[in-house]
């Protein structure tokens, strides 16, 4: 009986320890303002000396200004991440303003390091995301002013302004530097190009079609 209790205790301890180790560590100090010019490469940014940190390291302005949507997609993302606010370093959060021309799109893309929660400030958006390859299930929703929608981390998602006037949304992301992979740009605009025969087979089209699409990027 005693040995059984010991084994049960050990099993519980291992399970609990595993759960603890699987979580993100807590910050070890009040803040770690990014020294973006430091040549030391780490997973994130080296901290500035706290003695030279000022309030401006936690500040940015300009999100009241509409982005220029005069581009083929008809949208503009204005990011506020660790590059704009060095004080976000290690804090695991950032945001972006997204402006859309009428019928403009924020094309299919992913954030490899962040979940996104999107709030519509003006206009009407059609939004959606696709699950991973096990199902490739598409979830879509029409959002109106004040509506909120979540895009799970790493999944391909998009937005389209389906109204006749401009639209604006604010996106919050669970990373100081969420990254973005725009699918079309990455696949057809890589440097150097992905060989056309590979893309032709993947998309089940001829190589001439692939080459024509690549030329657009």
UniProtKB/TrEMBL annotation:
PANTHER family for the chain: GERMIN-LIKE PROTEIN SUBFAMILY 3 MEMBER 3
Record bears the keyword Translocase: no
GO cellular component terms, A-Z: apoplast
Domain Cupin type-1: residue ranges: 61-211
Binding-site positions, oxalate: 106, 111, 116
Highest taxon of the lineage: Eukaryota
The keyword Transmembrane helix belongs to this UniProt entry's keyword annotation: no
Disulfide bonds listed in the record: 32-47
SMART domains per record: Cupin_1
InterPro entries listed in its UniProt record: Cupin_1, Germin, Germin_Mn-BS, RmlC-like_jellyroll, RmlC_Cupin_sf
Residues noted as binding Mn(2+) in the record, renumbered to the chain: 109, 111, 116, 157
Species of origin: Momordica charantia (Bitter gourd)
Location relative to the cell: Secreted, Extracellular space, Apoplast
GO molecular function: manganese ion binding
Protein name, UniProt field: Germin-like protein
Major place of residence: secreted
Function: May play a role in plant defense. Probably has no oxalate oxidase activity even if the active site is conserved.
Pfam families: Cupin_1
Family: Belongs to the germin family.
Signal peptide: 1-22
Keywords: Apoplast, Disulfide bond, Glycoprotein, Manganese, Metal-binding, Secreted, Signal
């Amino acid at each position: 009986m005693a040995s059984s209790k010991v084994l049960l205790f050990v099993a519980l301890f291992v399970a609990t320890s595993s759960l603890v180790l699987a979580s993100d560590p807590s910050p070890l100090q009040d803040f770690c303002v990014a020294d973006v010019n430091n040549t030391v490469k780490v997973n994130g940014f080296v901290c500035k000396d706290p003695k030279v940190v000022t309030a401006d390291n936690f500040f940015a302005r300009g999100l009241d200004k509409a982005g220029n949507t005069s581009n083929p997609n008809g949208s503009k993302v204005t990011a506020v991440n660790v590059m704009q606010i060095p004080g976000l370093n290690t804090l695991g959060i950032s945001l972006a303003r997204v402006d859309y021309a009428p019928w403009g799109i924020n094309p299919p893309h992913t954030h490899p390091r962040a979940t996104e929660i999107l709030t519509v400030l003006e206009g009407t958006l059609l939004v959606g995301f696709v699950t991973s390859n096990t199902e490739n299930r598409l979830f879509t929703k029409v959002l109106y002013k004040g509506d909120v929608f979540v895009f799970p981390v790493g999944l391909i998602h998009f937005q389209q302004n389906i109204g006749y006037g401009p639209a604006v949304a604010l996106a919050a992301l669970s990373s100081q530097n969420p990254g973005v992979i725009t699918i079309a740009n990455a696949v057809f605009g890589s440097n150097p190009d992905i060989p056309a025969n590979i893309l032709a087979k993947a998309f089940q089209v001829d190589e001439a079609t692939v080459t024509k699409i690549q030329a657009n990027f």
